Amino acid sequence: MTERPGDVLLEARGLTRHFGGLAANSNVSMTLRRGEIHALLGPNGAGKSTFINMLSGDLPPSSGTILLKGDDVTALSAHRRSRIGIGRSFQRTNIFPTFSVQENCVLAAQSRQQQPGRIFRPPLQNEAVVARSHEVMALAGLNHCASQIAGTLSHGEQRQLEIAMVLATNPAVLLLDEPLAGMGAEESSRMVDLLARLRRDHAILLVEHDMDAVFALADVITVLVNGELLESGPPEQIKASPAVRSAYLGEDEGTDYA
Amino acid sequence: MTRFFRTFPMIAALAVLLVFPMFGQIFYTELVAKTLILAIFAMSLDLLVGYTGLVSFGHAAYFGIAAYAIPLLTPAGAVNAIWWILPVSVLAAALAALLIGVFVLRTKGIYFIMVTLAFAQMAFFLFHDTDLGGGSDGIFLNSKPTVTVFGLEALTLENPTHIYYFVLALTVSVYLLLRWLLKTSFGHILIGIRSNEHRMVAMGYNTFHYKLAIFTIAGALAGLAGFLQVVLTGFVTPEMLAWHQSGNVLLVVILGGIGTLIGPVLGAFTFIALQEFAQGLVDRWQLVMGIFIILVVFALPGGLAAIPARLRRRLVKGADND
Which of A101, A234, B56, B80 is deepest in the core (most CB within 10 A)? Predict the structure, then answer.
């Protein structure tokens, strides 16, 4: 089967997660397709992080099913989900500060090559892994600082590295938790360009508070409120929805979100 | 140039160690051999504490298990070729670490510290309270292992000078082996786990497997140190597995500088020198030792291994001020 844009890559069916008596997510379903950016919106505490954590395998759902390309992956651990093509980035930057930018990317790419013969060699001598690190550094715009120690990068560059590391693992599905958080205007627009380019080959779930970016990028928007799916549809529908306006966007009424 | 300045002191130190037995008394030759054994022990622990972020408080278990393997796994009266008893002894420690690792590595942080200690205590009481290994008295070795190469006796391990060179060769080998290992992708994966295990999992690493691998390697090398200790002293006692032994080796690592290989070696020399000095000075020598360690921890974060970098920074700063 050849993979085309529009193929369903990841599907969540009726995901529910309780923390004690609190339902952080109840009965949330979602479909992520190749070639689509699916934005997940909701006020703080709406359950967006819980939802991402269930998709990435960091948190087992209380009930519901997760399918990757039709296969049930609900019971797979987080590292296995990464190996089969679900990559996630983190809201708080999660890089390895003492390694160089390239070493960070190499460490991520090496995760696809964990055979003993490849592990017991200096990382920069593994040609396939090094080649992949160059590709993702070029994609994320980090070529100029490949040998810089990651901890000394600017905040925006660290966010770019965060994305580069996810890409180095060759995921089909990208779960991106606030990739634009704390970025300046210029860095932000560069990241938006990158995400638009990644759309073609990936299915992307985007959690983001920057509404300009969301409406510029998203093909589909799902709104969560109190752990429940409020509405899901194309950006125009969400923008026009009275329910969304009152529940989420509605705090200062009359604002134009276009 | 920097490479030269980094390598030169080590070559010089190695040269001093090579000629040392020709000048020192037997007492000091044995003391330095004891120090080098502690250095191997501490390097093995630093793989866990410094590189992988696993603070094991029961590392003496593997040191002691390898030691007990010598009398327990050699038939009485037999002449023991080192080519047999050394691997058997190290493998016993590795196997114990593998089995214990499967359990303890499911815990984290303070729980990991307590569970490693608990398993080590179990091993201690196994040898201390049963007749398995001679109880609290331990066992004296009737004869030292023999070292023959092509039928010729290469070293006599009854001779302290021979033991010294044997220990020195193994210390250098372990150092070089670990220096290589930590520069491979495997080493980077360990450092990644220490730095951010959650991210490593998210990138597709089964971190449990890597932690189990390094826990087993660390156990094997602690076992090598335990083996050498018995070759040096000629007897095994339950004290080799006692919790203060685990504590001491942890102190050596902290004193020398965690997350470096040279740190545990510097720590071992400082620790033994301090012990000798303080013991000769006062009855309550452990008090002197304790005060010194507190001073180092406060005045030198990063341990003794961090001194060159601190000096360099100070020199650079001084030059800037001129």
Answer: B56
